[in-house]
């Protein structure tokens, strides 16, 4: 600090505010540091205003963009070598194109020994669950889902099996929030988004903030940034992913007991209903499965939902011993 | 282990409660707002369902409260940004002048201008300062992680961060 040169025209309170802010964000701060900070705040009214200006700046920077300097940014490769590299080697060692389910089956053994044992959360069909983590992050887990969570010192890590969840992640620059989902890694700074991983398809919809996605086995790759109102869709095993404009409310609708579809295959609707009610719902044939569906289904009770589906889509729903079968109505 | 971490935090909370209220009264300029916030810290602690591995419980509580304040601030600022986005879609441009359909959109315009200024000011930072700033603020790496990734010391990371913030503050009105 003593060696710093003054910014021309910059005032002292602003500089001191920046120093405090950085030190308290650094993660090494102690209770005594916070008491010293309190003393500084009290020392002059200008101090509190300078600190508030800095907080406004920090928050507004959430929406700022800094063009990346390409080529020299081995962020993940070297940033957290204990955790990420160990994971990555193990994943690659087990076969680069390993299916997500296999990775997850082996998952627990891959967590570096220095980390806390992950905690596993499951929901049965028809059941949802609210989880609040130690850092204040809220997770709402949809039906028939499984995720494991480990709050490590250097990062918060989540592995997502076949699952769908809304994440409202507390901002904590000292501990990035990392989600392994299939062959993608999602990196979060502090935001709210819905992440769906069903039958090998990954869909990410952001309601607030920005989320970064990159392949699990190429952590140094340029990440794809997904912003508010965008949706990233990706089929596991393929290199492609598409980024499109999306209405966030549709992806979040399940948290309000609704399912919203815009031109989706009926097979997806059948899968969602199976998970929602715990009764298998399937399409009778590929033609039925491929029908496109657009509409809102309120998921109050099974019979009512099926009646509405019959009204909105050219299908009939019939109940059998082993579940519900959807069949395309004959033309004419 | 989880339970121990949590009960240690709650013990620290009870011990430091008066300190926290005093601190946040200073920050919020209102003792009742401070009481609410300190109560919310407790609610967050009590609803903990995951694991915790916290080295410095007292600092954790101050930081949790400070982050709650930042989140509230985010909520307030976000409204202006959303209005700015709305304005972008609604505004008709006539030459260089914007014809706004909404006379009360000044705040939204200000938010958008500020964002443009921020983006410009960021590009003025030195290459290494930019790198440090980006990794910490936009990619969420901690100071030690940034230090390790770039092969520099933690205090160098802090220095770059301070430099960046001072520059941004100096460039904005």
**Uncertain regions of chain B: pLDDT < 50 for 5+ in a row?**
85-104
Give the fraction of residues assigned to helices of chain A: 25-40%
Largest Cβ-defined interface? A-B, 80 and 74 residues
Number of domains of chain B: 2
Largest sheet of chain B: 2 strands, antiparallel
How many runs of DSSP E, i.e. beta strands of chain B? 2
Q: Per the principal axes of the C-alpha atoms, what is the gross shape of chain B?
A: flat
Rounded mean pLDDT score of chain A:
77
Tell me the number of structural domains of chain A.
3
Structural class of chain B: mainly alpha
Distance between the termini of chain B: 49 Å
Shape of chain A: elongated
Q: From the 3D structure, determine the CATH topology of the largest domain in chain A.
A: Jelly Rolls
Low-pLDDT residue intervals, each spanning 5 or more residues of chain A: 1-10, 67-115
Describe the protein in words.
The complex is a heterodimer of chains A (about 325) and B (about 170). With about 325 residues, chain A is α+β, with helices and mostly antiparallel strands. Chain A has three domains: about 10-65; about 75-250, Jelly Rolls (Sandwich), CATH 2.60.120; about 255-330, Phage tail protein beta-alpha-beta fold, CATH 3.55.50.30. In chain A, about 30% of the residues lie in helices and about 30% in strands. Chain A has helices spanning about 10-25, 30-45, 45-60, 75-80, 80-95, 100-105, 105-110, 250, 265-275, 285-290, 300-310, and strands at about 120, 130, 140, 145-150, 155-160, 165-170, 175-180, 185-190, 190-200, 200-210, 210-215, 225, 230-235, 240-245, 260-265, 280-285, 290-300, 315-320, 325-330. In chain A, the strands form four sheets. A seven-stranded mixed sheet of chain A has the order 1-4-5-7-8-11-12, with no helix packed on it. In chain A, strands 2-3-6-9-10-13-14 form a seven-stranded antiparallel sheet. In chain A, strands 16-19-18 form a three-stranded mixed sheet. The radius of gyration of chain A is 24 Å and the shape is elongated. The termini of chain A are far apart. A two-stranded antiparallel sheet of chain B has the order 1-2. Chain B is mainly α and about 170 residues long. Chain B starts with a helix and ends with a helix. In chain B, α5 crosses α7 (about 155-170). Chain B is flat and about 45 Å long. At the A-B interface, α1, α2, α3, α4 and β4 of A face α1, α3, α4, α5 and α6 of B.
């Amino acid at each position: 600090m003593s060696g710093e040169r003054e910014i021309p025209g910059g005032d002292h309170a602003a500089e001191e505010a920046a120093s405090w802010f950085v030190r308290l964000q650094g993660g090494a701060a102690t209770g005594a540091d916070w008491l010293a900070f309190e003393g500084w705040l009290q020392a002059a009214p200008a101090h509190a205003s300078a600190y508030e200006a800095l907080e406004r700046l920090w928050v507004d920077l959430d929406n700022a963009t800094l063009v990346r300097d390409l080529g020299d940014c081995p962020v993940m490769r070297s940033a957290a070598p204990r955790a990420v590299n160990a994971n990555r080697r193990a994943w690659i060692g087990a076969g680069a194109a390993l299916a997500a389910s296999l990775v997850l089956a082996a998952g627990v053994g891959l967590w570096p020994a220095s980390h806390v044992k992950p905690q596993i959360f499951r929901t049965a069909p028809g059941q949802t669950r609210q989880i609040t983590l130690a850092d204040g992050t809220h997770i709402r887990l949809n039906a028939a889902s499984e995720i494991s969570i480990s709050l490590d010192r250097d990062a918060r890590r989540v592995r997502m099996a076949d699952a769908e969840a809304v994440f409202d992640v507390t901002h904590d620059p000292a501990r990035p929030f990392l989600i392994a989902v299939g062959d993608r890694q999602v990196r979060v700074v502090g935001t709210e988004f819905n992440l769906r991983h069903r039958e090998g398809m990954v869909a990410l919809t952001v309601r607030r903030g920005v989320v970064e996605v990159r392949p699990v086995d190429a952590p140094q790759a340029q990440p794809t940034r997904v912003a508010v109102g965008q949706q990233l869709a990706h089929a596991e095993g393929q290199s492609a992913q598409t980024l499109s404009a999306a209405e966030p409310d549709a992806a979040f609708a399940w948290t309000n007991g609704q399912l919203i579809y815009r031109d989706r295959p009926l097979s997806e609707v059948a899968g969602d209903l199976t998970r929602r009610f715990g009764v298998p719902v399937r399409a009778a044939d590929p033609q039925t499965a491929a029908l496109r569906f657009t509409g809102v289904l309120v998921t109050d009770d099974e019979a009512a939902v099926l009646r509405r589906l019959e009204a909105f889509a050219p299908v009939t729903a019939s109940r059998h011993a082993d579940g519900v079968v959807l069949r395309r109505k004959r033309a004419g | 282990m989880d339970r121990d971490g949590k009960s240690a935090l709650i013990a620290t909370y009870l011990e430091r409660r008066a300190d926290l209220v005093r601190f946040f009264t200073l920050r919020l300029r209102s003792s009742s707002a401070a009481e609410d916030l300190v109560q919310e810290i407790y609610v967050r602690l009590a609803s903990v369902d995951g694991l915790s591995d916290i080295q410095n419980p007292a600092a954790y509580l101050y930081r949790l409260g400070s982050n709650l304040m930042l989140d509230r601030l985010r909520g307030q600022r976000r409204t202006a940004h959303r209005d700015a986005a709305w304005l972008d879609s609604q505004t008709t441009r006539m030459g260089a002048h914007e014809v706004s359909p909404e006379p009360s959109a000044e705040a939204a315009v200000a938010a958008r201008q500020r964002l443009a200024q921020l983006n410009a000011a960021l590009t003025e930072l030195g290459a290494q300062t930019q790198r440090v700033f980006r990794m910490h603020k936009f990619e969420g790496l901690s100071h030690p992680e940034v230090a390790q990734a770039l092969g520099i010391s933690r205090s160098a990371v802090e220095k770059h961060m301070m430099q960046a913030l001072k520059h941004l503050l100096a460039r904005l009105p």
